[in-house]
Write a structure and sequence with these properties.
The chain is mainly β. The chain has helices at residues 139-143, 184-193, 209-216, 257-266, 316-324, 364-372; strands at 3-8, 28-35, 42-49, 55-62, 70-76, 81-86, 91-95, 111-121, 127-136, 152-160, 171-173, 179-181, 198-201, 224-233, 236-241, 270-273, 302-307, 313-314, 330-334, 354-361, 376-379, 387-394, 404-405, 409-412, 417-425, 430-436, 447-449, 454-461, 467-474, 480-484, 487-491. It has three domains: 3-141, Sandwich (Jelly Rolls); 144-382, TIM Barrel (Alpha-Beta Barrel); 390-491, Immunoglobulin-like. The protein has six helices and 31 strands. The strands form five sheets. The chain has a 16-stranded mixed β-sheet that branches. Strands 1-2-9-4-7 form a five-stranded antiparallel β-sheet, with no helix packed on it. The radius of gyration is 26 Å and the shape is elongated. The chain starts with a strand and ends with a strand.
Length: 494
């Protein structure tokens, strides 16, 4: 006879880095055996789901495959069928906003669920053992559509952190040439063709795009799809990255923008102000950043310094005002594409501008960590190879000690000399302009580059107060090409 036993195990460990689903402890384990007498039968394996679960994930395995045994997999909740993947998947996840293909997204009701096992083939003398590991509220799959990094190794990864699809207000040409809501696939395909490493699809206050993104991620195995959302309020827009869970975006009395941002952080996600200096009023309702209550800037991680829009829109002044308050916000860019891949002549191009992030692997946690650390520059041209980096060390420091990097803080006493280096690549016939506290100064003259790939040194004498210093690269026409994140200068620690 068929038998199973239900094992209650410790809750899943909180993971700081992206790991395979199998590496975290399951909440439940269902185990059993199937023998030859059960050939061509159906087996229901019940298990209990507690209240408060928003995501359920299953990993399924069985023995005797080498003896031609086949076990197929499905699942039902207390009231309805939720899907069947046959023998083509050993892992699936179901949540309110998204589910693995073959399965239906939706709320996870508490009560008795059932694994639906089918036995299309098992030989008479064979006994096969199966194991189903069940995890509740997987943080991995709440923040990412893949359980493994798409690439490993520390390098600069290039992406676009602002774009739209049919799930909000993106349109593209249909087969007959009409403008229709543009499917997510075409946005991802366009990004892949442009050589991007990651994108965040940020439809306005929407979560329905996550279902398509979970389906597409296995196909786009060189393009990381980051869960994103443009939180569109009456008083400004901001993107969030790194969660698929619902967050109430409605800024209104009793629920100000700080409440929304605290909820974003509680879900492990990050937030960045969008197109802060966009036109407002009826031209672009809610687009300009003008919160009606003071914003706790420490709840933010970034500012979209360059927005693609219909033209490249700079919000560097908002960024500089935030930095002047001592809040280390990272500069990012986004195309804000609303036209898909085959766009009208005056539309934006996916990947222009690009946000370039240094990370140790291509995963959602690693990319978001790079943004948090300020290891980011913005490429206004969306090139595939331009690089801008900045480092600094005290002239008196041991040369073997590591320098402060872009995004880091260096402590310097008044009168101390700081040796800086700007590293650029593939920026021929360009100049590097240096900005102290948001402004060019006669003390920091532009640095000329003819080779385009080189290290350009300069020095600056500290005055014992706080500053931030960043770099911009301009081409031979004096057009802005690259913007760095700053190095922060603070008084020496006493």
């Amino acid at each position: 006879m068929h038998s199973f036993r239900l094992l209650l195990l410790l809750p899943s460990l909180l993971l700081a880095h992206l790991l395979s689903a199998q590496s975290s402890a399951p909440d439940l384990v269902l185990q059993g055996t199937v023998n030859g007498s059960l050939n061509k039968t159906y087996i229901d394996v019940p298990f209990q789901v507690p209240a408060g679960v928003h995501r359920l994930s299953v990993d399924f395995s069985y023995t005797a495959r080498d003896q031609k045994t086949a076990l197929d997999l499905g699942i039902a909740d207390p009231s309805r069928f939720r899907g069947n993947s046959g023998g083509n998947k050993s892992h699936f996840t179901i949540a309110e906003s998204d589910a693995t293909p073959s399965y239906l997204p939706g709320p996870i009701p508490p009560g008795e669920w059932k694994l639906l096992l089918s036995v299309p083939n098992i030989h008479p003398a064979v006994i096969a053992a199966y194991r189903a590991e069940i995890r509740f509220n997987s943080e991995i799959e709440d923040s990412s559509f893949t359980t493994a990094a798409l690439a490993t190794g520390e390098r600069w990864y290039r992406g676009d952190l602002h774009m739209h699809t049919a799930h909000s207000d993106c349109s593209c040409a249909s087969q007959s040439g009409r403008r229709v809501p543009c499917p997510v696939f075409f946005t991802a395909q366009s990004a892949a063709q442009r050589g991007l490493d990651f994108i965040a699809i940020t439809d306005h206050n929407a979560m329905s795009q996550y279902e398509a993104m979970r389906e597409l991620q296995p196909y786009f195995d060189k393009l990381l799809l980051i869960p994103g959302r443009e939180m569109t309020t009456f008083w400004g827009h901001f993107n969030i990255f790194g969660t698929t869970q619902y967050i109430d975006y409605r800024v209104q009395p009793g629920h100000d923008i700080n409440a929304v941002l605290r909820d974003v952080r509680a879900h492990g996600a990050i937030a960045s102000i969008n197109h802060a200096d966009a036109p407002g009023g009826e031209i672009c309702m809610g687009c300009v950043w003008e919160p009606q209550t003071p914003v706790d800037l420490s709840l933010l991680t970034g500012v979209e310094v360059i927005n693609g829009g219909r033209f490249l829109l700079s919000s560097a002044d908002v960024w500089d005002r935030s930095l002047a308050q001592g809040v280390h916000l990272t500069a990012i860019g986004g195309s804000d594409n609303h036209d898909g891949p085959a766009a009208p002549p005056d539309s934006t191009v996916i990947g222009v501008p690009a946000t370039v992030v240094e990370a140790d692997e291509l995963s959602v946690p690693a990319i978001l960590d790079g943004i948090r650390r300020g290891r980011v520059f913005v490429d206004l041209t969306g090139s595939r190879d331009r690089i801008l980096d900045l480092d600094a060390r005290l002239a008196s420091a041991d040369s073997a000690s590591p320098p402060a990097k872009m995004g880091d803080e260096i402590h310097a006493a008044a009168g101390a000399t700081i040796d800086f280096q700007v590293h650029i690549a593939n920026c021929q016939r360009s100049s590097v302009h240096l900005f102290l506290d948001g402004h060019e100064t006669p003390a920091l003259v532009p640095l000329a580059s003819t080779l385009g790939t080189e290290t350009l040194p300069f020095t600056w004498k500290a005055d014992g107060t706080r500053h931030w210093l960043r770099a911009e690269v301009r081409d031979s026409n004096n057009s802005l090409v690259l913007i760095s994140s700053p190095i922060y200068i603070s008084p020496a620690v006493q």
